[in-house]
């Protein structure tokens, strides 16, 4: 299957869904557990028929879904097709979506030696060095956020170089940044906007607010 570009995904006009770092995400407001379970059951039947399965989180008031073609590690047409089918199921059941509420939280660690530190973080976060793939530690069960490694110059121990990446829908990034600034933060670097904007809290702790635009 052909990997779809970010622009192709936007042009697909999946109104209920947003692409964040790697996958398509959606949130459906079911209001109660029984409605959510009924919705998830029909989604599961559709996914089984399609031979393609979303990640599903069912809680009392809502259902979160994530779609990605795991065999290629990207979004393909089958994800788009299943996303449309899931949205249609929601409409048939009178369930509304809240696409601007989806987010993805990642940790990043600057390092000059991925081969040296990567296995440690894979082992401590997931219990297995096998969770390290390329430049990222990813827990397939979703217990911990993804940790990715950004190449940098060598530095002396114990200097620590963690930063937070917060992926938000591209159409709410400006609103989220404005809210953070109004709450006492400041913009540190917006040269790469709308791809990402670096913010800092009043004590200087930084976060990158990321979108799929211009990537």
UniProtKB/TrEMBL annotation:
<dbReference type="InterPro" id="IPR036428">
    <property type="entry name" value="PCD_sf"/>
</dbReference>
<dbReference type="InterPro" id="IPR029068">
    <property type="entry name" value="Glyas_Bleomycin-R_OHBP_Dase"/>
</dbReference>
<feature type="domain" description="Glyoxalase-like">
    <location>
        <begin position="107"/>
        <end position="210"/>
    </location>
</feature>
<dbReference type="Pfam" id="PF01329">
    <property type="entry name" value="Pterin_4a"/>
</dbReference>
<protein>
    <recommendedName>
        <fullName>Putative pterin-4-alpha-carbinolamine dehydratase</fullName>
        <ecNumber>4.2.1.96</ecNumber>
    </recommendedName>
</protein>
<comment type="similarity">
    <text>Belongs to the pterin-4-alpha-carbinolamine dehydratase family.</text>
</comment>
<keyword id="KW-0456">Lyase</keyword>
<dbReference type="InterPro" id="IPR001533">
    <property type="entry name" value="Pterin_deHydtase"/>
</dbReference>
<dbReference type="Pfam" id="PF18029">
    <property type="entry name" value="Glyoxalase_6"/>
</dbReference>
<dbReference type="InterPro" id="IPR041581">
    <property type="entry name" value="Glyoxalase_6"/>
</dbReference>
<dbReference type="GO" id="GO:0008124">
    <property type="term" value="F:4-alpha-hydroxytetrahydrobiopterin dehydratase activity"/>
</dbReference>
């Amino acid at each position: 299957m052909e990997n779809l570009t970010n622009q192709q995904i936007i042009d697909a006009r999946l109104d209920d869904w947003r692409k964040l770092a790697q996958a398509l995400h959606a949130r459906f407001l079911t209001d109660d557990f029984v409605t959510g379970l009924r919705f998830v059951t029909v989604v599961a039947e559709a996914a089984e028929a399609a031979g393609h399965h979303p990640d599903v989180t069912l809680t009392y008031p809502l259902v979160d879904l994530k779609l990605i073609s795991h065999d290629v590690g990207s979004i393909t047409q089958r994800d788009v097709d299943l996303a449309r089918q899931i949205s249609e199921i929601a409409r048939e059941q009178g369930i509304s979506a809240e696409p601007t509420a989806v987010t993805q939280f990642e940790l990043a660690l600057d390092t000059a030696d991925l081969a040296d530190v990567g296995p440690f973080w894979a082992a401590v976060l997931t219990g297995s060095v096998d969770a390290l793939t390329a430049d990222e530690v990813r827990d397939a069960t979703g217990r911990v956020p993804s940790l990715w490694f950004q190449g940098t110059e060598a530095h002396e121990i114990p200097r620590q170089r963690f930063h937070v990446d917060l992926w938000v829908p591209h159409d709410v990034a400006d609103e989220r940044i404005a809210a953070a600034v109004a709450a006492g933060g400041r913009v540190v670097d917006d040269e790469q906007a709308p791809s990402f904007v670096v913010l800092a809290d009043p004590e200087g702790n930084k976060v990158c607010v990321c979108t799929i635009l211009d990537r």
